[in-house]
């Protein structure tokens, strides 16, 4: 676990270039993403809902589901983790409790959104948002009452689904004034909208962009988003979705052929490789330091 995850994330965000974060959801995905070379991780609410309770991203997971999942990831992560916290799980007092639980779980940044609870995935239709002042108070509470000064607060607005770009930009500015460190305008639907947010907000606050497979936001690369003024881009669904597809392919193959040896696309080495990915060499090295050297009969 990182000693000061918020400070570690802030240091990464101060370096030049856009920061790419894959959507992780469990220990395997977090280990693999870190070993691949990503500098920070995004603990996706959709992935956490799918992996921890086997449900879709429609507000069924609880604050405890999220914080328990976070602890399992941050305890072994060597890079900071940004965590989706849905609507904050209640009013400003509940938001404070959520922030404290996530900080205790080792999270570097906590993302809350202005949807009406129970929320739904930002790229689904039928979203509703709370009043702007209600969410301003949530952001203010999160920013003022966090335990650690370096903890990063991400304010996400979903208002573009139900209102104009003018209100979207106004809300973003209100949330920034309330103490948000990062602004995340979710589910913009055109390149012009993405560019406008970057142009009007990118000079005053760090912006987060979202790239969901088949989502409402146009397909853009990290380089393109950086040129538009964004500092962070998350890819929240590609790992959990990819895992579900691969797992189904493997299950179908085993059921059909009655063997696991040809079930993994690309060929099978040995499942002992999983132990290496999970840190077996490091644990063996630690174990060697604590072996008994004297045997008494």
Tell me what the structure shows:
This protein has 297 residues and is of the alpha/beta class. The chain has two domains: 5-237, TIM Barrel (Alpha-Beta Barrel), CATH 3.20.20; 244-288, no CATH class. 45% of the residues lie in helices and 12% in strands. The protein contains twelve helices and eight strands. The protein has an eight-stranded parallel beta barrel, surrounded by nine helices. The longest helix has 20 residues, at 238-257. It starts with a helix and ends in a 9-residue tail after the last helix. The model has no long low-confidence stretch (mean pLDDT 94).
Instruction: Report the CATH C-level class of the largest domain.
Output: Alpha Beta
Strand order of the largest sheet: 1-2-3-4-5-6-7-8
Low-confidence stretches: none
The fourth-level CATH homologous superfamily of the largest domain is: Phosphoenolpyruvate-binding domains
- Give the proportion of residues in helices: 40-55%
Number of strands: 8
Structural class: alpha/beta
| CATH-derived architecture of the largest domain | Alpha-Beta Barrel
Succession of helices and strands: HEHEHHEHEHEHEHEHEHHH
Q: Which radius of gyration do the C-alpha atoms yield?
A: 21 Å
Shape: globular
Main sheet summary:
8 strands, parallel, barrel
Q: What is the number of helices? A: 12
Mean pLDDT reading: 94
What is the distance, rounded to the nearest whole angstrom, between the alpha carbons of the first and last residues? Answer: 40 Å
């Amino acid at each position: 676990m990182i000693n000061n995850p918020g400070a570690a994330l802030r240091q990464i965000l101060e370096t030049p270039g856009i920061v790419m974060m894959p959507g992780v959801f469990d220990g395997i995905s977090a280990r693999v993403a870190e070993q691949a070379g990503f500098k920070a991780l995004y603990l996706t609410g959709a992935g956490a809902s799918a992996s921890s309770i086997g449900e879709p991203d429609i507000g069924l997971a609880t604050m405890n589901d999220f914080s328990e999942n976070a602890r399992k990831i941050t305890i072994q992560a060597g890079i900071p983790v940004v965590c989706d916290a849905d609507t904050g799980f209640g009013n400003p007092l509940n938001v404070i409790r959520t922030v404290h639980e996530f900080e205790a779980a080792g999270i570097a940044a906590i993302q809350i959104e202005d949807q009406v609870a129970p929320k739904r995935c930002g790229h689904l239709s039928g979203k509703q948002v709370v009043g702007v002042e209600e969410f301003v108070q949530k952001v203010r509470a999160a920013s003022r009452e966090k335990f650690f000064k370096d903890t990063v607060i991400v304010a996400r607005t979903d208002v573009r689904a139900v209102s104009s770009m003018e209100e979207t930009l106004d809300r973003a500015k209100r949330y920034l004034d309330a103490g948000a460190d990062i602004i995340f305008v979710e589910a913009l639907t055109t390149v012009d909208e993405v560019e406008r947010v970057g142009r009007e907000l990118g000079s005053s606050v760090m912006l987060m962009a979202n790239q969901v497979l088949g989502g409402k936001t146009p397909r853009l690369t990290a380089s393109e988003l950086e040129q538009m003024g964004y500092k962070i881009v998350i890819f929240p669904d590609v790992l959990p979705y990819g895992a579900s597809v691969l797992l189904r392919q493997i299950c179908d193959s085993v059921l059909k052929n009655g063997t696991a040896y040809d079930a993994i696309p690309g060929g099978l080495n040995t499942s002992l490789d999983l132990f290496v990915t999970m840190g077996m060499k490091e644990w063996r090295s630690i174990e060697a330091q604590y072996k008994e050297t004297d045997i008494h009969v």
